[in-house]
Each structure stands twice: as C-alpha cells, then as structure tokens.
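Hello,

Following up on my earlier ticket. Below are the two sequence lines again, exactly as submitted.
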Amino acid sequence: AQTVTQSQPEMSVQEAETVTLSCTYDTSESNYYLFWYKQPPSRQMILVIRQEAYKQQNATENRFSVNFQKAAKSFSLKISDSQLGDTAMYFCAFMTWSNFGNEKLTFGTGTRLTIIP
Amino acid sequence: EAQVTQNPRYLITVTGKKLTVTCSQNMNHEYMSWYRQDPGLGLRQIYYSMNVEVTDKGDVPEGYKVSRKEKRNFPLILESPSPNQTSLYFCASSSGGGLDEQYFGPGTRLTVT
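Thanks for your patience. The regenerated structure is below:
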C-alpha cells in the first residue's frame, strides 16, 4: 500500500519570504506521479504542481517548485516570494494505477500554511 | 467553462434517512471518483468509475453506493447515513492517462445527526 506523509501540520511565514513544505511517500511502484494541491478557505482543491517519477528534472510553475528525490522518496514544495493568497492547506498526493485503471490519488494529511502580512 | 458540479453544497440530515449527492462534469471525462476529507486524514477515495457502468470500490466504500448510467454523472448514495459519515465530500474527474489533471468539484459538506 502507498502512503504519503506530511510531517508539518502547520507552518507560517512572513509575506515575500520563501517556505518549503515537506512530503515523503512510500511505494514499491516504479512508475507514478506526484502532485501538490492547494485548498484555500473556499475548500476548492487546486492543482499547484505535478511531477512524473521518471523525470529527473524538478518541476516548476512560476513561484512554485519542487525538490524531487526519488531514491529518498521525498517530494518537497518550495514557494518563493510568498503572497497572502498562498494561505491555504497544502496536500501532497501520489498517484499510481492498478491493473484496472484506478487513477487513485493517495493524499497526505496536509500542511496548513499561513502567510503573515 | 470546464467544471465539475456537486449538489447540494451543504446538507444536514438525520441518521438513516437516505440521501444522494449528485456530481456532474461537462468535459466528457471517462474517469470519475469520490473522496471524503476528514481532519487529520487527508482525502480518501470512496468509489471510482472508469466509464459508464464500470465502477469499483476505493479505500473506504462501506456505507456508500454509486452508479454511472451516463458518462457525465456519478452520484454518491448513502442508503442509511450514520454520524461517522459526517465529512466533506469531493467528486473528481479526468480524461485518464495518469498525469492528466483531476478536476475536483467544489465539495459537499455533509452532517449526519
């Protein structure tokens, strides 16, 4: 069974600073995808960034980037120049699929990030 | 606009009273699934569907039913709700292929008293 661990239940950072959210996962699969989702107070799940496990290059999306360490099974999210709108719950998620094609996302327990003005 | 809709957004009900949460997507996606979100547990998959008339259990299917009679709709049915089904529910859809983004609905907050 796959598991995703987010060891930081809460974090806070001053606006404009950089913050890194940690995520580790456990799997015996060799092909999988990793995601970070953002859930603001509106509760909407918003995809922030995704990474294919077979790609060594770390994904980046504007101010968001990841540090993917496949051997260590680590997938951290870095937010640069943090903004008030980044305040949200962040979920790390892992996807593989069974022989029956279930594209199940396995989520971590989340990190509540607060950006302080 | 590409979207996944859920109804109702909020529901308070009593133990044992059957209810249905609807989910509809307008993107012609084949894959749909339901998750529940509970504090400290993240999101967990309840059921999924790979296409019309093809459904299967996820990690926490007890107490739930689903159906997929049309490609766009994937309702979640609670035949006899219990207080431990109080949760935030999300429907999601994607076209498949792994890296393709899963689109989430806005969520349904269910309270069972």
